[in-house]
């Protein structure tokens, strides 16, 4: 199946900072462009870190209150996270303020892979790199959500062509496929149970599919068949062998 790539939804005009960009200039760029974060690059356009609004807020929050008594502490006794926070609190440049190493994706990664990366790291935007690890774009959660704006007709056409015809070698009208608001319903009878499982699994992976309603039936339950017995039939197993 063909999955939409990050490169098809990313923004190519990227607001970026360099290591020596002053703190106030970073804040100005975020405000002027109404963005919540930006990448920091070196002279070779390679991403060395990222800055978020949270990083700037740490800088502001850690400014000492002139009316509070000074706290005595030893830097070597702080946790790593607390030491990093202390460094950010005194940051004057993007290089001192940024978080590293940066979490990135590549332009040829799928939208699904990028979404998983965002969820795993609890972030809202990702710098996008090319094959030479250079910055070529930025992708946000909003960009990734575009995949769910695919028309139902386009989703249905892909289910029929990629799943039924190409993967399972079935006539295009052998199974009834309907799509409503991204929810795909598969209705009909197949030869074997394993084929129904493949049809449902592949359909779930199609870009823009919200859910799959499985109304498929089968003539033969091959779930307990030996591998050599399954190989005699060939259709579903040929697809499985290609995974």
Automatic annotation (TrEMBL):
Domain BON: 151-220
SUPFAM superfamilies: CBS-domain pair (SSF54631)
Record carries keyword NAD: no
Domain CBS positions: 10-67, 98-155
Gene3D superfamilies: 3.30.1340.30, CBS-domain
Transmembrane spans: none
Domain of life: Bacteria
This protein's record includes keyword Iron: no
Keyword set, alphabetical order: CBS domain
Entry-linked SMART domains: CBS (SM00116)
Annotated PANTHER family: CBS DOMAIN-CONTAINING PROTEIN CBSX3, MITOCHONDRIAL (PTHR43080), OS02G0818000 PROTEIN (PTHR43080:SF29)
Name of the molecule in the record: CBS domain-containing protein
Phylogenetic lineage: Bacteria, Bacillati, Actinomycetota, Actinomycetes, Kitasatosporales
């Amino acid at each position: 199946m063909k999955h939409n790539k990050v490169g098809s939804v990313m923004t190519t005009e990227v607001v970026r900072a360099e290591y020596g960009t002053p703190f106030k200039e970073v804040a100005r760029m975020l405000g002027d462009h109404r963005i919540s974060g930006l990448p920091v690059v070196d002279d070779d356009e390679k991403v060395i870190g990222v800055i978020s609004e949270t990083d700037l807020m740490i800088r502001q929050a850690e400014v000492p209150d002139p009316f509070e008594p000074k706290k005595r502490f030893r830097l070597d006794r702080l946790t790593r996270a607390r030491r990093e926070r202390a460094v950010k609190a005194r940051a004057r440049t993007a290089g001192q303020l940024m978080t590293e190493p940066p979490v990135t994706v590549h332009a040829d990664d799928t939208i699904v892979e990028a979404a998983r990366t965002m969820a795993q790291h609890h972030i809202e935007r990702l710098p996008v790199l090319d094959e030479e690890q250079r910055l070529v774009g930025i992708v946000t959660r909003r960009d990734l959500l575009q995949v769910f704006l695919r028309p139902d007709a386009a989703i249905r056409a892909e289910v029929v062509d990629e799943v039924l015809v190409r993967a399972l070698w079935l006539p295009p009208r052998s199974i009834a496929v309907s799509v409503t608001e991204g929810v795909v319903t598969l209705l009909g009878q197949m030869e074997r149970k394993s084929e129904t499982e493949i049809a449902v699994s592949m359909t779930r992976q199609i870009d823009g599919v919200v859910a799959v309603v499985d109304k498929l039936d089968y003539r033969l339950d091959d779930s307990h068949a030996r591998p050599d017995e399954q190989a005699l039939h060939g259709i579903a197993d040929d697809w499985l062998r290609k995974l």
